[in-house]
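Researcher: Quick one. four chains, 1037 residues in total.
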Amino acid sequence: MFIVDYIKDVYNGVTSLLKGMRLTGYYFVHPKEIITQEYPEVKQVLPERFKGEVVMRHNENNEHRCTGCTACELACPNATIKIVTKFDITPDGKKKKALDVFVYHLELCTMCNLCIVACPTDAIKMAQTFEHSVYDRTELTKVLNKPGSKLMDGVE
Amino acid sequence: MIEEVGTTTEGDLIINVGPQHPSTHGVLHLVITLNGETVKKVEPHLGYIHRSIEKMCESLSYRQFIYVTSRMDYLSSHINNQGCALVVEKGLQIEVPERGKVIRVLMAELTRIASHLLWWGAMGMDIGAFTPFFHAFREREAINDIMEETCGARLTMNYVVPGGVMADIHPNFQKKVNEFIKLLKSKIDEYYILLTGNIILQERLKGVGVISAEDAINFGCSGPVVRACGVKSDIRKIAPYDGYEKVKFDEVFETAGDSFARYMVRMNEIRQSLSIVEQLIDNIPEGEFQAKTKAVLKLPKGEFYSRVETARGEFGVYIISEGGLTPYRIKFRSPGFSNLAALHHMVKGSKIADMVATMGTLDLVIPDIDR
Amino acid sequence: MTKEELKTKLTELVPTATFDEAGEWLNVLIDAKDWLPMAKALRNYFDLQFDYLFNVTAVDWKTYLSVVYHLRSTKLEHVVVVKAKIADRNNPEIETVSNIWRTAELHEREAFDLMGVKFLHHPDLRRLFLTDDWVGYPLRKDYEDPLNMIKL
Amino acid sequence: MFSLESLAHNIDLGLNNIFPPTVALLSEMVIIGVGVIALFAVLGLVLVFMERKVSAYMQIRKGPNRVGYQGFAQTAADTLKLVLKEGLTPDGADKFLFNLAPFIVMIVAMLLMAPIAFTKGFQIWDINIGVLYISAISSLSVIGILMAGWASNNKYSLIGAMRSGAQIVSYELSAGLAILAMVVLTGSLQISEIVASQQNGWWIFKGHIPAVISFIIFIIAVTAETNRAPFDMAEAESELTAGFHTEYSGMRFAFFFLAEYVNIFIVCAIGATLYFGGWMPFHVGTWEAFNHVMDFIPGVVWFFGKTFGLIFLIMWFRWTFPRLRIDQLLNLEWTYLLPISMFNLLLMTIIAINGWYF
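Model:
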């Protein structure tokens, strides 16, 4: 019947609305459900696999493991890494290729992790930093090997 | 002939919706012809974030090009990557170890849930309910945290490599996913109360943006759009990949073909994906997560096509190889591009508000359309 | 329909067609002028019923162009790949199929935009992604753009 | 005992003692004008802050929490930003109407403040047709909105304004009928008398079924009249970007924004006056002790408490429901609300004539 359908319509509609209001009302009176993270005060600890930026491992004697093989440079899809090599003279008088400057363009990097996978000597890794904002983008071009650092002994 | 600004000769109003507009979810530009509130014509103008990924991939090696595809449909980036890895594996006949396959499927389904959750929230925004957005993000955040722990990134993970996955799962992965399953199961009924069951939403979506099964096929729609008309189209069922043939799940169908049917297909797909995750999470086989591959991959001369089911529909990768280090020609068949083609057909004759609601249920991701 | 059955059927349809069975699906290589009648047949014949055109693209083979159509039948669940060869690279022309499969409309516009294939009788053949005054077709192999293309 | 009534009375007496009556009246007007503007500013700040916090808590987030303690100064900071911002006028806009529209909307909101009784005897103008006055003036705000939409030279604004026109004109009817039902029950149009008639119980309890129905219709209709979600057709963020005030910026935008919130306050104040007894304390029949305790709470607190309760209800609607479509909106009015409220008016008349209320 028309009137019955009409009232049923109104009833069903209103109950569906009230159910929704009960849910939002529940959240309104339960502030402990709030999921806001207040960022600068509360900093989340990022998991160790988080890909923030590429850094080079150095030990306490300022030695790194990069042989300058350019595997990472070849693996990089965006030309983010540029490796400049030099020739060291080994004690027995031979010339040996070694890393001079490891240039890393953070502004081009997409954190795809391919360079880390490609590295045969495990010289680079991903750091868990994420606050990369700077005022001048040239600051994002970084040299990863620390000044005066040398190749670790035994790494070929 | 349509003028860019002003009215047509019949006195209809022409409005530019986008490239910056709250309901186009990105830089989609629609030129709509209006007669009062009624939409007479919708014409998409594309290319605002066209990056020519296809050309870009022609100069990238078979390992490198996978990461670019994350930037297409960024909401189901893992599934895009999976499709690309599959085509390389098909060309090189690499057999992915079981563990690798299961991890891929798990991640793909989590991605699908995350994508559908974001769609649900944005759908609410499109029809004027703001609260669902945050409620959906709460659960999506849990998925993102899981992704972050295992893959190292939250959205564009680049976790897939030809031959498997890049790294093994994190030791906490199974525990976290089990927690997430519990969380989502407790919250999924709230979605019903908050939006699905709401009389206003049902009135807004039922009978709006109707497309028949024949038209949907003819327009090349895929995914939930065509499943809402009752057409079998799930690639996971038609041409199973990565071990989808071994898991039990139902392809979700509706018959009405309207916006509400599309809405319900997506809502039910969340449950189906959840059941896939549930089946697999405690049964990840032991073994290698990645097959042994050569350092430099070279596809043999020939043509390879692989298709996967992303959250939006059928994603295809078509590679023509000349035997070199890089693809000779690569083409991505993106689901959003074809779905967008049907928009005019769906909305002509309805109100502006219906157009927004229909666009919401199409779940357009603009980088996916523009590529 | 299996590959073999499709092959015999399609040979009847287009006698000049050649086949390539290397991949997963049957590849049919035809000439561009045979395409329109073949497309109609593929769509309408009772035992073919390719109603779902899921991919259209064009390939630049340096001396000629080809347009590749991936077709699937949602009812009979078979797939065929049609490659129409366009010999004239400078003025490539092929009949549109946007009146047979509506999805082709946007896909063909994309192919026109990026590869320069002219689809005859297309209802609205304009640039899709690029601006209307763009010169050249970027996906062609001989396309040069010193400003935007960075050689690695 | 100190009360706002005696304060107002003393000011009136003092001014009349010092100045001749005309000057006294003028200076009283100035005081009231300043008071109303100050109240506007405070209401704007408080209501915007309230809306942001309510929405935040319903959306499981914290809302503004940086400027000042718990973000209390956030709205003040936003206002400062809006004041300092350049007010742009789009090219091709009708400059005069474009600049006039926000002021019309503001003036209407200010005029509506006049007959509202804040507490006993504390009322700007106790006009004897108070309810009618409010119904009449509140429909004027549509002119400002139409003006803004038309003058902006923007199609989104135009569509938004037209929607708003259709909507306000329609919902005026059921709001009027809902108010009329209460007038039938009270027998007076004067706000102070309506409040006084609720001394022994609020109308929503005394008038039982028809009063409750009337209240529900009233709250729906005023939500629509103030262009609030789920009836925010005029702004419809996802469809028309910002509707009729798309092109406004700076202070003129702030006027629209402020007027929206002041309008909400006014309609809720009227709702509180008609159904919840205005500044009348909560009394229960013969519980003398209880009633006495209730009397200790000043009328202003009661008034604002009830008003803010209704405002919270309207905000609650906004942050829960999706938006209706324009044809559904009109459908709701003409096929549901209007017949129900007409029937309700009839029912109310029968009840009032027979004295079947408490």
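The mean pLDDT of chain C is 82.
Researcher: Thanks, that's what I needed.
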